[in-house]
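chain below, 553 aa
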Amino acid sequence: MIGPQRLFRLTRIQLVMLRHGVDDVVLAAPLFRPLRFLVVFMPWRWVRRSEPRGVRVRRALEELGPIFVKLGQILSTRRDLLPKDVTEELARLQDRVPPFPHEDARRIIERTYGERIDAVFAHFEDAPIASASIAQVHGARLHDGTDVVIKVVRPGIPAVIRRDLELLYTAARLAERYVPDARRLHPVQVISEFEKNLYDELDLMREAANASQLRRNFRDSELLYVPAVYWRHTGRDVMVMERIHGIPISDIDALQAHGIDLRKLAERGTEIFFTQVFRDSFFHADMHPGNIFVDPSRPAEPRYIAVDFGIMGSLAPVDHHYLAGNFMAFFNRDYRRVAELHVESGWVPEGTRVEEFEAAIRTVCEPAFERPLQEISFAQLLLRLFQTGRRFDMEIQPQLVLLQKTLLNVEGLGRNLYPELDLWATAKPFLENWMREELGPRATLRNVRKQLPEWGEKLPELPNRIDHGLQDLARMRAELQRHSQEMAQLRRELDRGHRRLYAAIAGGALIVAALLGPPEPALPLDLAAVPATTWGLGGLGVVALLLALPWRR
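prediction:
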């Protein structure tokens, strides 16, 4: 049931959307298309809007708060779902969210440190460098002259997130209950994952730890540089990092002016993604243009610089195996193997007919491979594969949602830099090498080396373990022998009992036959007149009854 607070929030959302005139975007969705005829009854549609619809959508999301800004950021990467003009305007939400007052930032910093801001920083820039939905960034300088950036969480943001998440959960539960096709998408699980990511972003200590881990993974790397964290000045609401200077990945003109090799830059972006996913199982899951820069001092060998580590993803070993197998089979156009892997991993029901699923996948993928590389959209291909999987009850895997989103971001960045980017040719050698490393002889030797210290610790105990094992085996053998004897005795007792039962039944039957056999004698009873057969049957019956008695144990 929707309470008064939620009802008030829903009403405000509707008013904001109407005030900014975004009803045309809402009515473009398939769910609301049957209601388009109601447009004639909407007075706000009678006045022509001068602002483009993308601007109106962006401003509505900005006014509705951080949850909707984050939603707009995600949608800005899905050009396969929304019109181009809308996604381009939503891309401005990546780092151009209206900032909060610098007085609030100073107050939060001083509350975290427990002292005046001047005691920690020699200089603090009131004008923020960037402002996002969860936090904003200010420049500063330490007393030793080091230039740093300070990330500060927006004031009051947890309560705002909690309020809007309740609405999203309500909508997701209603969808699962009343929209059959929505159940396959697991909307409640998706919102739960979204909630986890949001609250992870609120904890800047967690983000600092993520940054440190990624920095270790790419130490001395020619592909990616991660700024250092100043742990002494980092807390839950404030994080201080090394200040970097780079060209935004979206500024193509500036990259070209510095002579950056855009083709190599695009290919290295793909290599960074697959390195994070398959080598480290730890990847930057928020790789939108506002978080990626390029080192201008290395035009021939361009290196990426990453910031904002609030959302990171990881994969379990089993996901590694199936994901790599799917990629390799997909690149080799082995659609049979793709279908088999989907069944083996449980992504489609166990009873799915592999040959039918294979044919459906081939129908979607084969036309794409026959087109020029610059016309192949991996986003469109994934979308069509999901639509095809719906026929086979394929379930969306929540643990892969971040990976799918990140891959779409990587493709968008690469194609923006170099439209002829061959994503397949760039990724395939890396995956082949990874498969050799993980499944070949080197992997076996690496696992043996990994286990050697543990084996070395247990080796001195091996004789005692063997002796104890032999003693336990002897005791088990004696116990089994005793149980075997007891079972044999029990079987003998059961056999004797069965024989006594059969004898008793036979004896009773013989006596009854003896009594019923002769005609009724005249009185007084003359025993001499009883036939010999009657005496014989009766005698046999008595003997059988005597044998049925338990004379001994």
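The longest helix spans residues 462-516. The first strand starts at residue 121 and ends at 124.
thats it, cya
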